[in-house]
Design brief:
CATH topology of the largest domain in chain B: Arc Repressor Mutant, subunit A
Structural class of chain A: mainly alpha
Number of strands of chain A: 0
Largest sheet of chain A: none
Structural class of chain B: mainly alpha
Number of helices of chain B: 7
Helix content of chain B: 55-70%
Order of helices and strands of chain A: HHHHHHHHHH
Number of strands of chain B: 0
Number of helices of chain A: 10
Oligomer: heterodimer
Distance between the termini of chain B: 45 Å
Helix content of chain A: over 70%
Radius of gyration of chain A: 25 Å
Strand content of chain A: under 5%
Order of helices and strands of chain B: HHHHHHH
CATH superfamily of the largest domain in chain B: Winged helix-like DNA-binding domain superfamily/Winged helix DNA-binding domain
Distance between the termini of chain A: 30 Å
Shape of chain A: elongated
Strand content of chain B: under 5%
Largest interface: A-B, 45 and 58 residues
Chain lengths: 241, 153
């Protein structure tokens, strides 16, 4: 038997009793003027705001605790160790972006109305923007406790954060793991590397290296944008099951 | 999207998941009311997918604590006119083959070939690529064919 015959039989056996209340239902809709009504569109701002509530509470809590820790350590320590803590902030954004793959929950319902691309982009944007804003506030607060200029403190804090975000995002994109531990370990390793770096290169935080820090910052921002774009493009064709 | 036309299809989809005419019709109406009343929609090309997702979620909610059994045996009771013995045997054989498929495979067949849901919509419903849908449908049809030939041969 060929496929057409199978489909023909399938259509025959899938006959159902006629719906009894269809006419009354549509009559009721017509009386209430709902027949031509369709789901209303929302603007981008409202969409972002709605996504805000879907970001896990633990993500926000983790970011807040880490920012407070960084501030506290900066207050008590005039060395360069606090800069090595910023990669841990990237754990939040990476865990949040990988959550869809791991848990397949609210996002599935959301992606019926919005593209997965929009949902993921909105969440990455939200977590990233809030964490960056928090980090900028911390930089502003802790700056007087360091002997460096504001721009140098900014670079020393942002570069490790961006490096961890980049390596974590690349890892998550290439290995969609269910546990998410891989990218978390990467963030901790980045933190360890930046903590150990001054021991290997004692002049790392000297002023003459500012140009290299600036170049690293620009390169990391560019690479992160490219990596995120690639990740988002791959999301649409992702095979979940 | 024509709502009246989709009413029959959503009803059919729910009927084969619930096996109860009145519950299927209640949930069909609930799906449409939720669809119309929704205020969180953005992409106009996804209306059909959204409607099926609501229906599927309502169905899952209804059977949350029970196992959903997609039973084709009941369809044998539906009277058919002018049916040859060969055709009847083919249908019985097809029903047997369908029983051996997974719920997802049967649902995909129903959506594509009975409800004529476009492949891009199915791909978004199952979160798989369009090529994966084509491949899976081809595989399911082959499985049915092999099963039927095995029974008859």
């Amino acid at each position: 038997m060929d496929n057409d015959r199978i489909i023909e039989h399938l259509k025959e056996i899938c006959q159902t009793p006629e719906p009894e209340e269809k006419k009354a239902f549509f009559q009721g809709l017509e009386e209430r003027g709902l027949t031509s009504r369709r789901p209303e569109a929302i603007n981008h701002g409202e969409f972002l705001l709605r996504q805000f509530y879907y970001v896990g509470k633990w993500t926000w809590l983790l970011s807040a605790v880490l920012l407070l820790c960084i501030t506290g350590i900066c207050y008590g320590n005039t060395g360069n160790y606090p800069f090595a803590l910023t990669p841990l902030l990237a754990v939040g954004i990476i865990v949040e972006t990988g959550r869809s793959f791991r848990w397949k929950m609210a996002e599935l319902e959301y992606t019926a109305r919005f593209s997965l691309r929009s949902v993921m982009l909105a969440r990455m944007f939200l977590v990233g923007i809030v964490e960056t804003a928090g980090l900028l506030a911390v930089i502003w607060v802790v700056r007087p406790w360091f002997s460096y200029s504001l721009s140098r403190v900014f670079l020393y804090m942002m570069v490790p954060y961006l490096a961890a975000s980049l390596s974590g995002s690349v890892y998550e994109r290439k290995n969609r793991s269910y546990s998410g531990w891989g990218s978390i370990i990467i963030c901790f390793m980045s933190s360890g590397l930046f903590a150990a770096a001054p021991y290997c290169l004692s002049s790392l935080y000297e002023e003459r290296f500012t140009v290299i820090w600036t170049m690293a910052f620009i390169l990391l921002v560019f690479s992160l944008v490219v990596s995120m774009r690639r990740w988002i493009c791959e999301l649409e064709e992702a095979v979940w099951n | 999207m024509n709502l009246e036309e989709q009413y029959d299809r959503i009803y059919k989809y729910l009927y084969f998941r619930l096996h109860d005419q009145h519950t299927a019709e209640d949930l069909t109406q609930e799906s449409f009311l939720r669809f119309i009343g929704s205020r969180t929609y953005q992409d106009e090309n996804r209306q059909l997918q959204y409607l099926y997702t609501i229906a599927r979620n309502l169905c899952s909610q209804y059977y949350r604590d029970k196992m959903i059994v997609f039973n084709f045996d009941e369809m044998l009771d539906i009277p058919q006119v002018e049916e040859s013995e060969q055709s009847l045997l083919e249908r019985i054989s097809l029903i047997d083959a369908l029983q051996k498929l997974s719920l997802e495979e049967r649902e995909m067949l129903l959506l594509r070939y009975v409800n004529d849901v476009p492949v891009p919509v199915i791909s978004r419903l199952y979160h798989i690529s369009r090529f994966a849908v084509y491949r899976r449908l081809k595989k399911i049809l082959k499985k049915i064919k092999d099963e039927m030939e095995g029974e008859n041969g």
